[in-house]
Amino acid sequence: QVQLVESGGDSAQSGGSLRLSCVASVLMYGTSCLAWFRQVPGKGREQVASINSGKTTDYTNSVKGRFTISHDNAKNTLYLQMNSLKAEDTAMYYCALKRGTVCSLGAYVIWGQGTQVTVSS
């Protein structure tokens, strides 16, 4: 069973930057999608960014131009570089995995435990 472990969550000032990491316990193979989600209390989980095994990326509109998702195959680590942070980026951030290459469709089946990002204005 694949396990995902996030890190890098912290407090930051508005306009600042953070980089989240997500390490997978086993090498990824075949067609798959990795994604970052975020959730604030009382709201549903939002898909923030995704990357598939072909390195195609996608972002929700609110983070386009500010966040960058990447995956280091050698380190088996997913990253989310977050720049120009805003207070509304405050949330628990989760990484997740699903099979297939269409990252916006289908259920993500493996989830990390989450890492908290807090942005103060």
The arrangement of helices and strands along the chain is EEEEEEEEEEE
From the alpha carbons, calculate the radius of gyration and give it in angstroms: 13 Å
Classify the helix fraction into a percent range: under 10%
Tell me how many strands there are: 11
Strand-residue fraction?
over 45%
Low-confidence stretches: none
Alpha-carbon distance between the two ends: 40 Å
Largest sheet: 7 strands, mixed
Spatial shape? globular
What structural category arises from helix and sheet content? mainly beta
Q: How many distinct helices? A: 0
> What number is the mean pLDDT?
94
How do the strands and helices of this protein lay out in sequence?
Blueprint: E1 4-7, E2 11-13, E3 18-24, E4 32-39, E5 46-52, E6 57-59, E7 67-72, E8 77-82, E9 91-99, E10 110-111, E11 115-120
Parallel strand pairs: 2-11
Antiparallel strand pairs: 1-3, 3-8, 4-5, 4-9, 5-6, 7-8, 9-10, 9-11
Gist?
The chain has 121 residues and is mostly beta strands. Helix content is 0%, strand content 50%. The strands form two sheets. Strands 2, 4, 5, 6, 9, 10 and 11 form a seven-stranded mixed beta sheet that branches. Strands 1-3-8-7 form a four-stranded antiparallel beta sheet, with no helix packed on it.
